Amino acid sequence: MSIAGGLPCAVERAVLHGCETLQIFTRSASQWRARPLPGDEVAGFRAALARSGIFPAVAHASYLINLATRSPSLRAQSIASFGEELDRAEALGLMGVVLHPGACTGGSEPEALHLVGDAIRELLKERRRAKVMVVLENTAGQGTSVGHRFEHLAAIIARAGGSRRIGVCLDTCHLLAAGFDIVSAGGYEATFEAFDRVVGLDRLRVFHLNDSKRTMGSRVDRHEHIGRGEIGLAAFRRLLNDERFDHLPMIVETPKTEGRRGVPDVDPLDKMNLETLRRLRGKK
Does residue 141 sit within a domain? Predict the structure, then answer.
């Protein structure tokens, strides 16, 4: 949900849509500079969230952050920015910050994974008393991005010291684009068996539920409305009714109606996607 109008407005929007969980950007996703969070706005957000009963709430990190880069200046900027993201999320009482691992800007893939793990280890070490989690999101594998294989996520976690404050977010669109067959019943089971074997289901903290405009293995990240893409309703029904994931937040990142950033109200496209998913829940 958008934070336009102030952070508490994101909670208001979530309540209007009947949400059970919430994801926000605590800052602009496309700018390095972030406005400071006023104390009264932080208090208002925390109070609104507590009243709403929505749990958990998470932040998504800025898309500019690249912990996998070998550029000294970009790496320093990315580490500082992600540290700020973690501090903002801690102040707001959020469960964690969802992070795209980054993209290689030279060097080998293993080196890039080491750079990500090293950065996360240091950031968590500097925040020993904090509770906020780093939640690594799988990627579609577009360009030189890392994180599209479960082995990548496992390598980052291992390099970061295996902290229990590192979790994983699985995005359905990204899974399909990266080549995981989550559409067929057999492919779905094989995908989660592989994830459990390589990473561990105990690391799974969040789902992003997005259909995909592109076909399996395309390695192109293009979100589509639920049931209107290459994943289809049957696969989402299977996931929504998988008892292993009953306790996990499932967040929709499908396209929104353009031009609706003013006073909190119901976005027709968000309403459509949420209602589609609710109809599938409890229907095996």
Answer: yes
* Count of structural domains within the chain: 1
Domain membership of residue 143 as a residue range: 63-280
Residue 84 lies in a domain: yes
Q: One-letter amino acid identity for 9?
A: C
Residues 75-95 have pLDDT tens digits of 999 999 999 999 999 999 999
H-helix segments, the chain: 7-16, 39-52, 72-92, 109-125, 150-159, 172-177, 185-198, 233-240, 268-280
Strands 211-212 and 223-224: antiparallel
Q: Which residues pair with 223 in a beta bridge?
A: 212
51: its two tokens: 């009243």
Spell out the residues 6+ positions from residue 270 whose beta carbon is closer than 8 angstroms to its own.
17, 252, 254, 256, 257
Report pLDDT digits (tens) over 115-168.
999 999 999 999 999 999 999 999 999 999 999 999 999 999 999 999 999 999
- Distances in Å between the Cα of 261 and the Cα atoms of 42, 163, 211 are 20, 38, 24
> Which CATH number fits the domain that encloses residue 199?
3.20.20.150
**62: exposed, middle or buried (C-beta count within 10 Å: 0-12, 13-18, 19+)?**
buried
Give me the long-range contacts of 10-16 (CB less than 8 A, separation at least 24). 10/45, 11/45, 11/48, 11/49, 11/52, 11/54, 12/48, 12/264, 13/264, 13/265, 14/52, 14/54, 15/52, 15/54, 16/264, 16/265, 16/266
For 53, residues 6+ apart whose C-beta sits below 8 A from its C-beta are none
CB 136 within 8 A of CB 157: yes
Strand-pair partners of 24: 59
